[in-house]
Amino acid sequence: MWCETQKNGTVKYCERYTDPLTEKVKKVTVTMPKASPQNRNKAARILAGKIEKAETSSPVRSDTTLKELADAYIASLRQCKRKESTIVTEKSYIYRCVSTIGNDVLVDKLSPRYIYDQLLATGKKISTINSYIKYLKFALKWGVKNDYHSNHDILLKLDYISEESSDEIPEVYDISNEYLEHDEITKLLNYFIIDNNHWQDYYISYFLILTGMRIGELVALEDSDVDIKSKTIHITKTYYPSTKHATSAKTKDSIRDIHIQPELLTLIKKLRLWRKEAMFESGIKSTLFIPHLKTGSYLSYGTYNLHLKTAASEVLGREITPHKLRHTHASILAETMSAEQISRRLGHHDDKITKAIYIHITKKMKQKDNAAVDTISIIN
Rounded CA gap, 214 and 344, in Å? Predict the structure, then answer.
């Protein structure tokens, strides 16, 4: 609160507040005959009452468009100091959903059927459409609470679209495309060091294959997080390319310790020796486990992703992503470990692709066992 002395000697006390409907800053005032502690306290009480009345008496809008609702909701996330990575994710889904349904559609006129028709017409996967609906419902619920619309029916009736056999991978889908076989791993790694002398790409790929880490987790990994004495890698955070910052882990289950097996221990020792020499040659210092060799900051996800796709296309005849190296780790573990053990190491509760890979690998092993039995003759 501040005061302004008028020409006639009276004092005007002023206060600002944010209008909950327009989110614009407004001013309320009260005039007192003179400046005094008593008048100041009285003015404060009057101003507080005016602000409370203004904030609680704002009418519910009936002309709010979907785009206006989306803009206001995203702005509210920043005011609540939500993580920037969360805001980026919600913003992406909500704006894509809104642009598909129609930016100028009035929220009060929306019906679930109209939303379903517009989203299904895109031909996108049901899982993607349900993601759109999920974040749209967040915005719609916020809108009701903040008087942006009064379409309560949309919250009651709008639901996710059911997807038959959603837990199954279609039989026509070749799950082997989601991971590398042992000989393919060798071809890929040899391409980086023998054919092109790309040691950083080699170490990143090999490390991801041996740990099953997400690429964001590796980018954010500090050198101190890799403890060879206790044979443990501590995963506590991840890197988001969209924000160019590392933040807390993707999910609660993503915070985990990864055991360092003998092959991984050997790789880490070699990697650290290479890291030391590479940083010395570049004249940089960094606390990151695998830093950008020119800046010492986070390595470029986009650059590595491009190098990986190029290498895979060259030697395997198909493109792969860093996440498929994570799947490759799961396929290797499936030869000796249970699905629950794999999930704990990878840091997730349930993953359809990982589950499908596990089933695929174990089926192959059973077929191999059966073939071996077929070669045995006990009597004849």
Answer: 14
